[in-house]
Write a structure and sequence with these properties.
Low-confidence stretches: none
Number of strands: 11
Shape: globular
Order of helices and strands: EEEEEEEEEEE
Distance between the termini: 41 Å
Largest sheet: 7 strands, mixed
Structural class: mainly beta
Helix content: under 10%
Oligomer: single chain
Radius of gyration: 13 Å
Strand content: over 45%
């Protein structure tokens, strides 16, 4: 059975950086499109960015362009979200999801990791 374990969240001051990781096991990670989402208190979940099976980023949200970078290592079965120049409005629970290439529904989800940006 597939499993996605997230790590890397925490608290940081504005302008700081964090790197989130999503480690997969039990499924063919390289065949899945990886998505990063976030959900702030009282708000709906929103897409942060996605990355193709071959490592090309797409669906990058305007609010993170130029600040966040999505990447993946298919050999190690891990996805990354590098977050730089963090702002207080980036505070949210961040989730990773994986969908088989060519489908529209995420089959596997990370457990979520809290990111808090405050001074």
């Amino acid at each position: 059975q597939g499993l996605f374990v997230e790590s890397g969240g925490g608290s940081v001051q504005p302008g700081g950086s964090l790197r989130l990781s999503c480690k997969a096991s039990g499924f063919s990670f390289g065949d899945f499109v990886l998505s990063w989402y976030r959900q702030a208190p009282g708000k709906e979940r929103e897409v942060v960015a996605r990355i193709t099976t071959l490592g090309s980023a797409f669906n990058i949200a305007d609010f993170v362009k130029g600040r966040f970078t999505v990447s993946r290592d298919n050999r190690e079965k891990v996805g990354f979200l590098q977050m730089d120049s963090l702002k207080p409005e980036d505070t949210a629970v961040y989730y990773c999801g994986a969908r088989l290439f060519g489908t529209d529904v995420d089959e596997y989800w990370g457990q979520g990791t809290q990111v808090t940006v405050s001074s």
